[in-house]
Each structure stands twice: as structure tokens, then as C-alpha cells.
Design brief:
two-stranded antiparallel ribbon; binds flavin mononucleotide
Length: 212
């Protein structure tokens, strides 16, 4: 037979259990964000001498700044149909050859559509380029990459930057680095532009993935 004291302690224990269960139901799970499927941003690049690869790595760092998004880095020669299909965001980068996309990169991109029949619809895209010259066509290369994306039903965007003095925010078409003798290699500022590109595309890709 239960004593009065025993009955009270049983009652208190029951209340405590109910209260704990109510709190657990009301609080969002700490793992809720990590349980959500990660958005994937694929960075595909062509690089013979390593400059564009450095930009691609900086783009990946920018993607990694965004929670819930994973970056996948692929040389164009190693990129598979599965890589492309799985991507929510796609960032393409290459050197400028004769003011445009190098043949190796262009042939691969043509095949993605023509032979592989990848469905690019509503993937979020961005682009970057390197070039030896100051006015050697880097921007034309970036725009050519974006035109491929637009033709394939993608949504394109560029990096943002802030003017602290004016309190305004600006958009760019992509990121680029001048690598020729007048300004060899990839500078910190150019890497920063590549990171901002990665971050912007990652944010948009996550938004598109979350959209109903
Ligand atoms: C065949 C060829 C053509 C090139 N044409 C241009 C050009 O038209 N404009 C330019 O700015 N740089 C040009 N370059 C320089 C490359 O774009 C530059 O060195 C680039 O950063 C190389 O990238 P990578 O180090 O990733 O291979 C050319 C280089 C090669 C090999």
C-alpha cells in the first residue's frame, strides 16, 4: 500500500515528466537546421597554369561561409553528369583565351547539354574568369559563361559589395583576376571578389532549395 508521502512524490514526478515533454515539444530541435538537406554548390573550372584554380578555391571558401550549403570543387575534366545534376548552384570559371572561353571548357559545356542532357532549370549560377591583360576580355568571358547558363534556363547572379562611405550596396557581373606581367598572380582583393561570388550564389541556392 502506498503511503501519503509516496503518493505525493509520484504525483510530483508525473508533473515534472509532463512539463519536460511540453518544453521539448515547444522548443525547436537544436538539430533542426542540420537535419534539413544541404544545398550544394558546384564550382567547375578550367586551369592550366593555376591562376583560375586559385580563384576557384576562393569561391569555395565563400560558399563555405553560408550555413546549410556545401561546396564541391571540380576541374572541368573531372566533372560528371551526376555532379551537375545534384547541384543547386553552379559556378563556372576559366581563363580568357582570345577574349573568350577556352575551347576545352566550351566543348565540355556544350556536351553537358547536347550529349549529357543535364537539366539546369532553376539552378542558380555565377561566373568568374582570369586573364593576362587589363582589357583582354575577362568580362566578356564571364558574360559568355552567364549566357550559357541563361540559355539553359538557369537563374544568374553576381557578387555584391558595399560602399561603406555611401552606405550603398552594388552588384557585379562576376569575379575576375588579372594575372599577366603587369599584375602577376591573384591578389587579395581578387580573392575577396571570388569569395563574395561564392557567398552570394550559396545564399541564393539555399533560398531556391527552401522554396516550395
Ligand atoms: C592560348 C591563350 C590565349 C590567351 N588569350 C588571352 C586573352 O585574349 N586575353 C587575356 O587577358 N589573357 C589571355 N591569355 C592569358 C590567360 O588568360 C591567363 O594567363 C590566365 O590567367 C591563365 O589561367 P590559368 O593560370 O588558370 O591557366 C591567354 C593565354 C593563352 C594560353
Amino acid at each position: 500500500m502506498k503511503t501519503g508521502h509516496g503518493r505525493w512524490s509520484g504525483w510530483i514526478l508525473l508533473c515534472l515528466m509532463g512539463w519536460t515533454m511540453m518544453i521539448a515539444a515547444a522548443e525547436p530541435s537544436a538539430n533542426a537546421a542540420s537535419d534539413a538537406p544541404q544545398a550544394q554548390v558546384l564550382i567547375v573550372y578550367y586551369s592550366l597554369q593555376g591562376n583560375t584554380q586559385q580563384m576557384a578555391e576562393a569561391v569555395a571558401e565563400g560558399v563555405a561561409r553560408v550555413d546549410g550549403v556545401t561546396a564541391r570543387l571540380r576541374r572541368v575534366e573531372d566533372c560528371t553528369r551526376e555532379d551537375l545534376q545534384a547541384a543547386d548552384g553552379l559556378i563556372l570559371g576559366c581563363p580568357t583565351y582570345f577574349a573568350s572561353i577556352p575551347g576545352t571548357m566550351k566543348l565540355a559545356m556544350d556536351d553537358w547539354n547536347w550529349k549529357w542532357k543535364v537539366d539546369f532549370t532553376n539552378k542558380v549560377g555565377g561566373a568568374f574568369a582570369t586573364g593576362g591583360g587589363q582589357t583582354g576580355g575577362k568580362e566578356h568571358t564571364v558574360i559568355s559563361l552567364l549566357l550559357f547558363m541563361l540559355s539553359n534556363r538557369m537563374i544568374v547572379a553576381g557578387p555584391l559589395y558595399e560602399s561603406v562611405e555611401r552606405g550603398t550596396e552594388w552588384g557585379e557581373m562576376g569575379s575576375s583576376a588579372m594575372t599577366g606581367p603587369l599584375d602577376p598572380g591573384v591578389s587579395d582583393g581578387q580573392r575577396d571578389a571570388a569569395r563574395r561570388l561564392g557567398e552570394r550564389i550559396a545564399r541564393l541556392a539555399r533560398k531556391m532549395k527552401d522554396a516550395p
